[in-house]
């Protein structure tokens, strides 16, 4: 049967899906303010355990389901909270990542080489033919670095054994957002994700904050390289308090923003090979690590008062003192706990849950895995299973995982294109607040129409995922088999009568796939 012959039925189903989606999103259970301690998750029925997997992974697949059933959901969850170093990537995927230029070449070397290229063509007349060729070569190379970073991220999301780590990497990349198209951040974004965010995604929050503070991508994005004694730039200081740590209602004042900006003076980026000329008494204070630079000649050495407590003016050590103070604040514990709860339950937490998460944060000195363990043990978490709306990244990655499981894809270009169409491309958020986590941002009719089109593409063919660069496809994957053991053992029981009726009426396996991936239940996790 042709795709065209199924379209009238698909259009009718689409209308039903839209109506079901509106009803399903409104029917979420409200968290309770007080509840007894949650039992271990191993006692949950299969459908609820599937819901847990859909939260701690990018989306359950047949292989993930089997692994969790074999290990037991509690042991599986413990392994996700404390993952080993082996990501368990398929050999062909690991080899693909290993071949990327951003893996084979240090960021500092790449960035400095690109800067030399930029200066060389910028020195030529604008109408010079050689300048145009050199500029295009520069753009190609910097775009390649960003494309490789996004490809690596998506491949890990689809295939990594450590699914929670990859989810938390995305979460923190969004929390500590940088926009790749500002300046030359495209050449830095892969290193920012790989060295600042990912190693700390389940570790201590303070280590995560510190890694972002000292990374040139963040310093460049929020203009701290323009921040100097006597010429304060408050951009980064404000976002570090408002977005990254204390939260908008975190109890700080404009004076604290100014004082933190003074602490951050001198932290910047040096893309050249020369160090600044410094007075003898400042030379011992100078720090250069790759393209990161602390220039003491640009630092305000006066004493500061941050959040009511003094910070002695002594140079770079002030930064660590400020980070310690921000991360130890109860406001930070509440802000981070609240945001994690919103991400993993799809709703603002009750006061009881927020307080429990903040207490876990403070008790563990900001141990992210321990805060998540508290969240996963909460009754509000269990009550929310299947009711958190999938944002575009969760929809796209979850659908590909469900459709093709461990089968290695050859290109993530279609996934990147879908995310762009859905308004959530990797590293594409212009403002520092990151993409919204609430469902209302992603439920417009236009968004749903695009999702139904993506469901059709994934459900009926390889969607270009199996076409290698250059257009060659060594094998035809055919259409995915979504009526699989995962569906029979657990997923079917989570579907409402309308969706089951639509699936039973499907005229072909391809149409069945489309109806499942376009169903209101599939829009949630």
What are the salient characteristics of this protein?
three-stranded antiparallel β-sheet, 525 residues, globular, single chain, 2 domains, mainly alpha, two-stranded antiparallel ribbon, disordered N terminus, 26 helices
Task: Describe this protein's structure.
This protein has 525 residues and is mostly helical. It folds into 2 domains: 3-30 and 389-517, no CATH class; 91-244 and 251-327, no CATH class. It has helices spanning 3-26, 46-56, 62-71, 73-81, 91-98, 101-104, 107-122, 129-159, 163-175, 189-197, 205-213, 216-221, 235-244, 254-263, 280-283, 317-328, 330-345, 351-363, 368-376, 379-383, 392-404, 413-421, 445-460, 485-489, 497-504, 509-517; strands at residues 267-269, 287-289, 292-294, 304-306, 309-311. The chain has a 3-stranded antiparallel beta sheet. Strands 4-5 form a two-stranded antiparallel sheet. Helix 8 (129-159) crosses helix 21, helix 13 packs across helix 14 and helix 21 runs parallel beside helix 23 (445-460). The relative contact order is 0.14.
């Amino acid at each position: 049967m042709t795709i065209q012959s199924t379209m009238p039925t698909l259009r009718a189903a689409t209308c039903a899906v839209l109506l079901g989606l509106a009803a399903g999103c409104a029917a979420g259970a409200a968290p309770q303010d007080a509840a007894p301690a949650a039992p271990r998750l191993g006692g949950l029925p299969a459908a609820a355990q599937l819901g847990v997997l859909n939260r701690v992974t990018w989306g359950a697949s047949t292989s993930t389901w089997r692994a969790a059933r074999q290990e037991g959901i509690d042991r599986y969850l413990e392994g996700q909270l404390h993952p080993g170093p082996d990501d368990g990537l398929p050999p062909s995927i690991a080899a693909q990542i290993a071949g990327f230029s951003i893996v084979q070449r240090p960021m500092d070397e790449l960035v400095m080489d690109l800067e030399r290229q930029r200066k060389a063509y910028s020195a030529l007349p604008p109408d010079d033919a050689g300048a145009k060729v050199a500029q295009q070569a520069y753009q190609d190379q910097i775009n390649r670095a960003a494309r490789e970073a996004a490809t690596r991220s998506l491949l890990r999301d689809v295939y990594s054994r450590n699914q929670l780590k990859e989810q938390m990497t995305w979460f923190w990349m969004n929390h500590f957002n940088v926009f790749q198209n500002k300046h030359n951040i495209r050449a830095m974004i892969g290193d920012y994700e790989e060295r600042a965010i990912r190693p700390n995604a389940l570790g201590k929050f303070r280590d995560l904050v510190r890694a972002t503070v000292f990374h040139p991508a963040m310093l460049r994005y929020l203009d701290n390289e323009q921040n100097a004694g006597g010429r304060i730039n408050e951009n980064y200081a404000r976002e570090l308090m408002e977005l990254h740590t204390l939260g908008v209602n975190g109890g700080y004042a404009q004076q604290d923003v100014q004082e933190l900006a003074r602490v951050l003076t001198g932290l910047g980026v040096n893309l050249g090979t020369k160090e600044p000329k410094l007075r003898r008494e400042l030379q011992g204070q100078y720090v250069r690590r790759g393209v990161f630079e602390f220039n003491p000649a640009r630092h305000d050495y006066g004493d500061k008062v941050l959040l009511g407590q003094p910070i002695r003016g002594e140079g770079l050590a002030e930064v660590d003192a400020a980070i310690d103070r921000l991360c130890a604040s109860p406001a930070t514990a509440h802000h981070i706990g609240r945001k994690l709860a919103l991400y993993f339950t799809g709703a603002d937490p009750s006061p009881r849950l927020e307080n429990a998460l903040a207490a876990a944060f403070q008790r563990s000195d900001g141990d992210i895995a321990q805060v998540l363990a508290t969240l996963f043990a909460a009754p509000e978490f269990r009550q929310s299973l299947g009711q958190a709306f999938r944002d575009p990244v969760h929809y796209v990655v979850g659908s590909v995982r469900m459709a093709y499981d461990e089968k290695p894809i050859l290109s993530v270009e279609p996934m990147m294109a879908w995310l762009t169409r859905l308004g959530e491309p990797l590293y594409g958020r212009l403002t520092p607040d990151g993409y919204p986590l609430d469902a209302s941002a992603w439920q417009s009719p236009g968004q749903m129409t695009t999702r139904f089109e993506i469901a059709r593409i994934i459900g009926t063919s390889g969607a270009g995922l199996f076409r290698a660069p250059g257009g060659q496809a060594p094998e035809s994957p055919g259409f995915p088999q979504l009526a699989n053991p995962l569906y029979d053992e657990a997923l079917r029981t989570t579907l409402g009568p309308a969706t089951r009726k639509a699936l039973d009426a499907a005229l072909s396996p391809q149409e069945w796939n489309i109806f499942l991936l376009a169903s209101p239940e599939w829009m949630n996790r």
